[in-house]
Amino acid sequence: MITLSVDAMGGDEGLTVTAPAVARFLQNQADVRLIMVGDSAQIQAALAKENVPMERVEIVHASEVVGMDESPQHALKNKKDSSMRVAIQQVKEGKAQAAVSAGNTGALMATARFVLKTLAGIERPAIAKFMPAAKGHQTLVLDLGANVDCTPEQLLQFAVMGGQLVRALQPENANPKIGLLNIGTEDIKGTETVKQTFTLLRESNLNFIGNVEANTIFDTEADVIVADGFTGNVVLKTVEGTIRFAGGMIKQEFTRNVFTKLSALAALPVLKSFKRRLDPRRYNGAIFLGLHGVVVKSHGGTDKIGFMYALEEAYHEAQADSIAKIEQGIAAQLNKSE
């Protein structure tokens, strides 16, 4: 039985989103129990409203909530009984295999790093996320915002962690392909940091396939794409905005007049499939890599469907025992790279 701890109060909407998401998630996964952390009375009422099977849920009271605009330093120093911190503490104490929160990203990363500590050989945790790609697979991209400035050595560490996570979740992929996000495919392009990272990756024991440009993220052969947090976050936000823009334009064109509306009826199955495959909610759930425990960050403004997918992400990582495999892989790969 897998146990996940949930920051029930985090995010823009708190229990309005987390409670119905939990109800759906428990229907989908029979071998999971949840630790819901937050105001116990509010959680009890919200779960009862959703008819959640309480025999699979434990409620742990936390008296504080970290605000979405609260500074990480303030949250870490003054919110020691926050739902976010207590949820992560469940992982630290071995009561849960993973924690999920839609709360303040900076506070969540700072708290997770303080409570769980980083893995040996890893200087900084990174935020990683699987993104849709062609040919039926997903591409893991990291870092997506945890580290604005990175050294070449840290980017190499991100590559190692990303490769090991893919191996843990996809046992059939024993040698994941690693790409480095750059402004061109030639090894002479990019900043000095990127050039030095290219050299480190090429000399490593990783399956490095070279530089990857942003316009090929969806059809690259790479299983993992590495970037500093500034670049990765810009790419992520651009992708999310482009999908919303494209969806809005398609809807606008199909509702322009009676003829386009009739065309929309004929194309409805294709449109529904297109929407489902690119629905950002299906890819909700960023992973904090490099910690002694699994922490998954849900988008703060997501709905119950999106939060359910964040729970699914945490479930699959816990099921694959990803942290243990990542830790073993890091030790092996970094020793070979020295």
Write a structural description.
With 338 residues, the chain is α/β, with parallel strands linked by helices. The protein has 2 domains: 1-120 and 290-322, Isopropylmalate Dehydrogenase, CATH 3.40.718; 123-283, Isopropylmalate Dehydrogenase (3-Layer(aba) Sandwich), CATH 3.40.718. 48% of the residues lie in helices and 17% in strands. It is built from 12 helices and 11 strands. Strand 5 and strand 6 form a beta hairpin. The radius of gyration is 21 Å and the shape is globular. The mean pLDDT is 91.
Mean pLDDT: 91
Structural class: alpha/beta
* Strand fraction: 15-25%
CATH topology of the largest domain: Isopropylmalate Dehydrogenase
Stretches where pLDDT falls below 50 for ≥5 residues? none
- At CATH level 2, the architecture of the largest domain is 3-Layer(aba) Sandwich
Strand order of the largest sheet: 3-2-1-4-11-10-5-6-9-7-8
Let me know the number of strands.
11
Q: What is the share of helical residues?
A: 40-55%
Protein name: Phosphate acyltransferase
Main location: cytoplasm
Function: Catalyzes the reversible formation of acyl-phosphate (acyl-PO(4)) from acyl-[acyl-carrier-protein] (acyl-ACP). This enzyme utilizes acyl-ACP as fatty acyl donor, but not acyl-CoA.
EC number: 2.3.1.274
